[in-house]
């Protein structure tokens, strides 16, 4: 291929990468608000640990329930317009927060979170395979790492921005709450609940505008139904997605990984509080986890695929996850909290590596394969409440033992599982 052709190809890829990067920023911002919503709603709605982690369950269970409808929507609208539809659905979910806050009803908050998760399921079903297959397969993890920087940079900002509004002076608020009678306490809690209205009104406006811009953008559509000769030959006679065992194992790996990522990001504030660190300080801990993820993504951009394959990156990440979890279980206070924050580094390259390894060779099955991978995101609905239950039963520190089997399965997928059912080389 001549230099002008290479330059034209790179130019063709760069523009969509920027547009998709903006989308990753948006759903990163929406997703990582949960790390603040968990302690915020725990106070505003007077919840225990298990109940407060239903924030994650309501949000992420949508990925499981909406995966099939997402594939159906993408078949009708295509990748580009499907992204616009996803943004509108997220906006509706954010809008539901207004009546939830006005009535201080936890169930309505959970409905709003479920609708937001549904929109993100559509958005992720479109954007992740899009960025995976828009360029060379061997550098897919590098492109997803770029997306990860957009996503996690938003995640760094989200808890700080929302925390500054809804958790302002929260330690004094909490101390004063215990001294009030029932009527005064109700009035104060209603005021606390109302703090979330303005941020979510602004979110609705931004999401609606972005949906319109995406719909009318020049983002190119990708035909995943077309297969090159090699893939078509390998897939001849295949009639079901279940005939790709490496994909099924990839879905399970993603299910475990997302559970681990959300536990590390959403529990660290509560973990700090469990060590008697003021909430006014602990509210910044989630941003530390996400900063570590951004560092990991930058490393992915630099080293993949020039110095290390996507598959090897996943192996090393799983091993690092086991080591850091072990240290978090047995080290004191700030050292243990630092290990949980550093899990962001271990987790950072798992998403970028699992997607291309799982989608490899799917050809015309890519859309349904993508929807199954999105179903795997429901791991975040399962594991955080289990962690919360363990916190109530044992301790916030010992509860992190749940992460060990998670990272061990990801290690299995990275070494053996990604090859199941096909002859592959590391990508």
From TrEMBL:
**Superkingdom of this entry's organism?**
Bacteria
GO BP: any one term: D-glucose transmembrane transport
Q: Which PROSITE patterns match?
A: MFS
This protein's major location comes to membrane
Limits of the Major facilitator superfamily (MFS) profile domain: 16-422
The entry's localization annotation reads: Cell inner membrane
Q: Transmembrane ranges?
A: 12-33, 53-74, 81-100, 106-123, 144-167, 197-216, 247-273, 285-304, 313-329, 335-359, 371-391, 397-418
For this UniProt record, give its keywords in alphabetical order, as a comma-separated list: Cell membrane, Membrane, Transmembrane, Transmembrane helix
A GO molecular function held by the record: D-glucose transmembrane transporter activity
Q: How does it sit in the membrane?
A: Multi-pass membrane protein
List the record's Gene Ontology CC terms alphabetically: plasma membrane
NCBIfam families, alphabetized? gluP (TIGR01272)
Give the protein's biological function: Intake of glucose and galactose.
Q: Which family does it belong to?
A: Belongs to the major facilitator superfamily. FHS transporter (TC 2.A.1.7) family.
User: Which named protein is this?
Assistant: Sugar MFS transporter
- UniProt organism field: Mucilaginibacter ginsenosidivorax
């Amino acid at each position: 291929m001549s230099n002008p052709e290479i330059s034209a190809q790179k130019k063709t890829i760069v523009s969509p990468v920027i547009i998709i990067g903006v989308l990753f920023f948006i759903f990163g911002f929406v997703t990582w608000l949960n790390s603040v919503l968990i302690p915020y709603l725990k106070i505003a709605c007077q919840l225990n640990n298990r109940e407060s982690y239903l924030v994650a369950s309501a949000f992420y269970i949508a990925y499981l329930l909406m995966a099939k409808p997402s594939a159906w929507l993408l078949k009708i609208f295509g990748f580009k317009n499907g992204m616009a539809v996803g943004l509108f659905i997220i906006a509706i979910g954010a809008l539901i927060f207004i009546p939830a806050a006005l009535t201080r009803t936890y169930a309505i908050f959970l409905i709003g979170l479920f609708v937001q998760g549904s929109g993100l399921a559509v958005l992720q079903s479109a954007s992740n395979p899009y960025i995976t297959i828009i360029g060379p397969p061997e550098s897919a993890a590098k492109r997803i790492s770029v997306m990860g920087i957009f996503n996690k940079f938003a995640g760094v900002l989200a808890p700080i921005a929302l925390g500054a509004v809804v958790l302002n002076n929260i330690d004094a608020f909490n101390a004063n709450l215990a001294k009030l009678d029932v009527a005064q306490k109700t009035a104060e809690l209603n005021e606390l609940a109302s703090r979330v209205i303005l941020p979510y009104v602004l979110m609705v406006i931004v999401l609606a505008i972005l949906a319109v811009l995406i719909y009318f953008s020049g983002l190119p559509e990708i035909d995943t139904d077309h297969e090159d000769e090699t893939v078509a030959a390998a897939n001849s006679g295949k009639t079901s997605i279940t005939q790709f065992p490496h994909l099924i194992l990839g879905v399970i790996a993603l299910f475990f990984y997302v559970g681990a990522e959300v536990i590390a990001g959403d529990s660290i504030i509560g973990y700090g509080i469990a060590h008697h660190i003021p909430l006014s300080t602990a509210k910044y801990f989630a941003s530390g986890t996400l900063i570590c993820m951004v560092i990991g993504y930058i490393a992915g951009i630099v080293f993949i695929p020039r110095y290390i394959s996507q598959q090897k990156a996943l192996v090393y990440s799983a091993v690092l996850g086991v080591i850091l979890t072990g240290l978090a279980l047995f080290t004191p206070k700030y050292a243990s909290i630092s290990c949980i924050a550093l899990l962001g580094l271990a987790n950072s390259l798992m998403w970028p590596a699992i997607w291309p390894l799982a989608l490899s060779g799917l050809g015309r099955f890519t859309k349904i394969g993508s929807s199954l991978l999105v179903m795997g995101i429901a791991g975040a609905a399962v594991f955080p409440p289990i962690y919360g239950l363990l916190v109530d039963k044992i301790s916030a520190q010992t509860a992190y033992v749940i992460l060990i089997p998670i990272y061990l399965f990801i290690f299995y997928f990275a070494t053996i599982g990604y090859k199941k059912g096909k002859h592959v080389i590391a990508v």
